[in-house]
Amino acid sequence: MHGRENWSSHMAFVMAAAASAVGLGNLWRFPYLAAKYGGGIFLLTYAVLAATLGFTLLVVETAVGRRTRLSPPAAYRSLSPKWQGIGWLGIAAPAIVLCYYNAVGGWTVKYLAVYAERVFRGGEALDAVKSGELFGGFISGGSYAPLACGAIFAGCTAALVLAGVKKGIERSSKILMPILLALCVAVSCISLSQPGAAEGLEYYLRPDFSAFSWKTVVWAMGQMFFSLSISLGIMITYGSYMRKDDSICRSVLRIEMFDGAVAFLAGLMIIPPTYAFLGPEGVQSQGPGLMFIALPAVFSRMTLFGAEIGDIAGLMFFALAFFAALTSCVSTMETVTSSLRDCTGMRRAPAGTVVAAVMGAALVPISLCYVKDGFFSGDILPGMPLLDFMDFAANNLLMPACGFLTCIFIGWIVGPEWVISETEADGSRFRFRRLFSFTLKYAAPIAIAGIALAYTLKQLDWISM
Ligand code: PHE
């Protein structure tokens, strides 16, 4: 068995885990959901859920990792051979996410290149139509560009994972996270200085109680799971490298605050100018449409002191999107690699190479699945091409299943005390024993089952959300 690597400090763990949490979900999903489901009231719901449910589940995962010093499958096997299936579920989701995240990461590479070229060579302004053509031409035009961009992204991911915990993951997040935060602040300032931004800001932040319903809670909860990468085994893996004298609770709080801050800033970057230039419909375009079509059209109209600043703002935005996606993908690949190592005793280099080869091969059909009439296009389920299907399978099926079973297993069989005593290993006292046990045993499993049910009914078109 290989000796386990360790983070070099408390902050190193916090930065790496925050880097894993901050991803495209913060940038494209959070702002859109907040604007649609009640503005300020969505933010408040999100904060309350993160402080209770999110906190509990992150603490559990980190403690499982640190106490067993193993990654998901081996960690659960060591706790109970009968329940080791949770570990396998816990690794299936990141394995799937890993494959398609490289493809989406490739889109950020493409846009980074587009904006770098525009900054240096200039280019015609992108209105909504041209911007749509640019994106459509890229992913469905039939060239191998999406594959090439995905491969560049996957190569960066693999290089960082192969470099190891300290030299690769820790060092890259220590450098990239402060840059990311600075870019967020810079782009937010530009956005807020645009004419008409104040109305958009109000649209984003004003609590709209009439828009508050159970849907707000379901979406806020789903977003929280995705954004904090809960139930993906990532925190188990990162927790397994954590030193005994660092505080789990304090780390988790900091990770959540960092993740929440970036999500909030993303809203400031995106909503006010999009609202000002494209109106509420622009803001309502969701997912890839918001980030890769609406936003470039917004950037094209930005000015600062009379000068056109859109291409520079675009370059900064896609640089930060690239960093955010990269560090999330690294944590996912590390989880899969580390699990392979724990199960086989392989060293990092061969295990990482095997994982890289598999994700490289998977990239071919996934990155080309939107090509019009292409070899890999076609729906797996109605309305779901391969990439959407993988996203659905991982986020709507595997993650809730794994999260639910984790709560049952740790809450009812292993017992909350097992987790609590691990959080006290650094000499601190755990102060929310009762709330924590209640959340883990009752609130969390019920909430997770509720989201899974709501998402499935929505998918079947039985309810609208
Ligand atoms: N947490 C990431 C985000 O906010 C998403 C993600 C989930 C990344 C799972 C990797 C694995 O975008």
Write the layout of secondary structure elements.
Layout: H1 10-21, H2 24-36, H3 40-68, H4 72-79, H5 85-121, H6 128-140, H7 145-163, H8 165-192, H9 197-205, H10 214-227, H11 234-240, H12 248-284, H13 288-299, E1 303-304, E2 307-308, H14 310-344, H15 348-367, E3 379-381, E4 384-385, H16 386-414, H17 416-423, H18 433-459
Antiparallel strand pairs: 1-2, 3-4
Helix pairs in contact: 1-8, 1-11, 1-12, 1-14, 2-10, 2-12, 3-10, 3-11, 3-12, 3-17, 3-18, 4-5, 5-7, 5-14, 5-15, 5-16, 6-13, 7-8, 7-14, 7-15, 8-12, 8-14, 9-12, 10-18, 11-14, 12-13, 13-14, 14-15, 16-17, 16-18
Bound molecules: phenylalanine.
Describe this structure in words.
This protein has 465 residues and is mainly alpha-helical. It has a single domain (10-459), classed as Hydantoin permease, CATH 1.10.4160. Helices cover 77% and strands 2% of the residues. The chain has helices at residues 10-21, 24-36, 40-68, 72-79, 85-121, 128-140, 145-163, 165-192, 197-205, 214-227, 234-240, 248-284, 288-299, 310-344, 348-367, 386-414, 416-423, 433-459, and strands at residues 303-304, 307-308, 379-381, 384-385. The protein has a two-stranded antiparallel sheet with strand order 1-2. The protein has a two-stranded antiparallel sheet with strand order 3-4. β3 (379-381) and β4 form a beta hairpin. α8 (165-192) packs across α12 (248-284) and α11 (234-240) crosses α14. It starts with 9 loop residues before the first helix and ends in a 6-residue tail after the last helix. Residues 21, 23-26, 97, 101, 226-227, 229, 232, 328, 332 line the site of phenylalanine.
